[in-house]
Structures are given as structure tokens and as C-alpha cells.
Amino acid sequence: MLDIVVLAAGKGTRMRSDLPKVLHPVGGRSLVQHVIDSARALGSDRILLVVGHGADQVEAQVAADDIRCVAQTEQLGTGHAVLQALPHFRDDATVLVLYGDVPLTRPETLQQLVEAVSDDTMGLLTVDLPKPDGYGRIVRDSDGQVEAIVEHKDATDEQRRITEINTGILAAKAGHLQKWLPSLSNDNAQGEYYLTDIIAMARRDGLSIHVAQPAAPQEVEGINNRQQQAALERYYQRCQADALMVEGVTLLDPARFDCRGRLTAGRDVVIDVNCLFEGEVMLEDGVTLEPNCYLKDCVIGAGTVIKANSVIEGAQVASRCAIGPFARLRPGTQLADGARVGNFVEIKKACIGEGSKVNHLSYIGDSKVGKQVNVGAGTITCNYDGVNKFVTEIGDNVFVGSNTALVAPVKLGQNVTVGAGSVITRDIADDELAVGRGRQRNIQGWQRPVKKAP
Ligand code: UD1
Ligand code: CA
């Protein structure tokens, strides 16, 4: 049984923000959400979030059945923070302490720590830092056993030379914490109740301290300012990029790849530089993305090519389509196999049938377009009268000439041809040609105006 306490009461002054620190994002998810997701990955069904500054906002953001928020109105130290959660610990639980501003600890790292906990052992996560200034130092005895943690401000010069530091993350039996936490004192350089003092108490009670270390130092880095946030963002993106490359995705430059959601990719997917993914994105086998594309909540079918600078949101794209450059697919777009959408084309809530082409400068909204249709350059579906939206239907094998306005509601049957420059306001039956434009007049001997002498 695992109870997890997440400390998230601090102010985060150095973010210089109106948003509570733990709600700032890394990889499109708030810091505290990362921690909660890791806690869940460990199989915990009781997550206690200690909140203080911005408590209402934090509580509203994380609300869920397995999360209880515990108020810490005054921030009197990390020991005092965990003490607030004490009444919620289940007696025989193992308790793991995490921090709302340390987002990237891998569940595998934490699992080692939790597994080591028993009635005579507690777990502590430490890391070696070349510049340990400011951190609590790990003091070991002559046998190399951890004896105590000494905060930087309370440490002697000799202790300050220790480079093994406390990450803050630890695990112990609830019963032990129930004994130790109420007896913490704040008689130290900062006048705080230090959680770290429980290490010496554990040793006094005959426990041994099992030490684990993370695979990478970034796993235990906290965020206090925008620079640290940016640094962890890059690290997080690099980890995601590496995972995709391991799965066989080609990233032309993994340093210029960003995913703020979840990206799944099939075999032989190629992603050029500066592509950004949000929400849930699925790229099937052989999809190619040219540079600078933005994809959010969409599925892209096998063999489709998305050319540079395209924006795709809430769309379903089938196989072997060609999109862009500079195309915009808005929510509700469905492209059937082999459809082509070219430059400066916007599509919204519309199905484009198999093999159909909308290649240049068009707006297609609230529409059903059949198979093998050619929509000429500059075609606009006039779907909106200022109040209501109307549907345009276009049958198979239709040819729409350039610069046509299709005033919805309107229906074009199969094999229809529309002359260029038409304004179509009435339905067109199968196989008809419709031309809706002013007739051309040619005037012979026309004299252009000339400038009069002053
Ligand atoms: C703490 C550790 C130190 C460790 C360092 C790692 C103690 C006494 N020291 O120091 O050994 O090297 O973290 O970063 O534990 N918090 C609360 N309520 C409080 C106090 C803190 O919720 O009353 C939260 C803060 O929001 C923060 C975290 O606990 O997320 C750590 O607090 P902080 O004051 O930053 O601890 P440090 O002094 O850095
Ligand atoms: Ca800190």
C-alpha cells in the first residue's frame, strides 16, 4: 500500500508570476501534473497534495478521486509540510515524499526507493553534484552508512565539501513518520521544521538508510525560475525525441522537435525540423512531415506527405494524401485516401473524397466533397450568413472552375462543371454545366482616356 505526499505549498517567488509555480508547464503539462502522473504510475491510490500559496488554483487544476489536498497555511518547513498530511496516511502504508516542482523523476527510479522500505529500512534519493551549494549534504559514517542530512546553512566548512546532496525525495513506513514528524524541532539556522532531520532519527531508532540515485541528474531537478524551466523543457523534449528515434522515427534534428502531448508513430516516419505536436497525434507508417508543421489531435494515414508550414488540428487524414505547403486543416476535416490540399487552403468540418484536389487558395467549410473532384483555385464555400451555417454538397467527378463562390445551402450533382468566376446560388443537377457570371462584351476601337494638358 503506497501513500504519496506531494509538497506544493511554496510560493515560487523567482518565477515572477501570478500563476502558482507548480502550475507552470513542462512539455505542455503542469509541473504538479507530471508528479501526479508518476505517482499514479507507481500504483498509488492515495495522493496527498500539500497546498498553500495559490491553493485554490492548484486544487481546481488537479481535482481527481485519488487526490486529497491538505492545506499548509504557513510554510514552516518541509517537515511541517509532511506533518499536515500525517492524519491521512494509512497505518501500514509505505509513504513516499515527492515535490510539486520536481517534475521529471522517472517512476523506475522511485520504485527502487519504495521497494527498499521496510520496518527497519527507509529509502533516500541522493545525487552527486559538482556544485552542491545550497543543498542538504549527505553525511556518512566511517562504514559509509548515511548518518544524517545537514542543510547547507547549518553545515560546517568540512560538511560543505560533501558533493552528495539530498534530493528531498524519500520513503518510509507511515508508522515511523507518525513517530518522528511530531518530534521535529525548528532549532536551526532557518528556524524551519526540516524533514531531513528524520534521517538522524531513523538511525537512532536502528534503521538503515537505503540510498538510490537517479539515472540522470535532471530527474531530481526542481524548477525555481524561468531558466530552469526552459532547461528542463529541452531535456524533456530530448528524452521524447530519443524514445521516438529508438522506435524507428527519423528526426532530422532532435534538438528542434517538440511534443506537448502524446505522439505515436508507425514505421519509417520522417519528421523534419521545427514540428510541434499537441494533444494526441498519430502518424501512421511512412508519413513525412516537412519543416515547421503544427499538428494537434489528429490522425495522419500511411504514406501521407505534409509539406512545410502546414497547420492541422482535429483532422482525420487517410492514406497517401498530400497537404500543404501552407495548408490549414481545422477541426472536423476528413480527407479520404489520395486527397490533395494545397497552398493557402483552409478546410473546416468538411469531408474531401478519394483522389479529390483542392490545390490553391480556397476555403471549404461545412461541406461534403465527393471522389475525384477538382476544386479550382480561389473557390469559396459561402457557408455563413452572419447567423447560421449551411452545408455545401459536391458530387463525384465535379470540376469547379477557379474563383467560384458556392453560396450554401447548395448541392452540385455528379459530373457537374462550373465555369470559372461563377457565383452559384442554385442546385446543379448531374452532368450539367453551370455558369453564373456577367457575360463578356468586347468593344472595338476603344479609346483609353488621355491626360489633358494643364
Ligand atoms: C530541501 C531540503 C534539502 C534538499 C533540497 C533539494 C529540507 C529541510 N531541505 O531544501 O536538503 O537538498 O530541498 O531541493 O527539506 N515546501 C512546502 N512547505 C514548506 C516548505 C517547503 O510545501 O513549509 C515545499 C516547497 O514548495 C518546495 C519543497 O517543499 O517545493 C522544498 O522546499 P524548499 O524550501 O525549496 O527546500 P530547500 O530549502 O531547497
Ligand atoms: Ca529548493
How does this structure look, described?
The protein is α/β, with parallel strands linked by helices. The protein has two domains: 2-220, Alpha-Beta Complex (Spore Coat Polysaccharide Biosynthesis Protein SpsA, Chain A); 237-434, Hexapeptide repeat proteins (UDP N-Acetylglucosamine Acyltransferase, domain 1, 3 Solenoid), CATH 2.160.10. Helix content is 17%, strand content 33%. The chain has an eleven-stranded parallel β-sheet, with helices on one face. A seven-stranded mixed β-sheet has the order 5-4-1-6-10-7-11, with helices on both faces. It binds uridine-diphosphate-N-acetylglucosamine and calcium ion. Uridine-diphosphate-N-acetylglucosamine (UD1) is lined by residues 7, 9-10, 50, 72, 75-78, 80-81, 99-101, 135-136, 149, 151, 165-168, 194-196, 222. Uridine-diphosphate-N-acetylglucosamine (UD1) binds at residues 7, 9-10, 50, 72, 75-78, 80-81, 99-101, 135-136, 149, 151, 165-168, 194-196, 222.
What is the compact description of this entry?
With 454 residues, the protein is α/β, with parallel strands linked by helices. Uridine-diphosphate-N-acetylglucosamine binds at residues 7, 9-10, 50, 72, 75-78, 80-81, 99-101, 135-136, 149, 151, 165-168, 194-196, 222. The site of uridine-diphosphate-N-acetylglucosamine (UD1) has 26 residues, from helix 3 and strand 10.
List the helices and strands and how they pair.
Layout: E1 2-8, E2 25-26, E3 29-30, H1 31-41, E4 46-51, H2 55-62, E5 67-71, H3 78-85, E6 94-99, H4 107-116, E7 121-128, E8 137-140, E9 146-150, H5 157-160, E10 164-173, H6 174-180, H7 198-204, E11 208-212, H8 226-246, E12 250-251, E13 257-265, E14 270-271, E15 275-283, E16 288-289, E17 294-300, E18 305-306, E19 311-313, E20 315-317, E21 322-323, E22 328-329, E23 333-335, E24 340-343, E25 346-352, E26 357-360, E27 363-369, E28 374-375, E29 380-382, E30 392-394, E31 399-400, E32 405-407, E33 410-412, E34 417-418, E35 423-424, E36 433-434
The chain binds uridine-diphosphate-N-acetylglucosamine (UD1) and calcium ion.
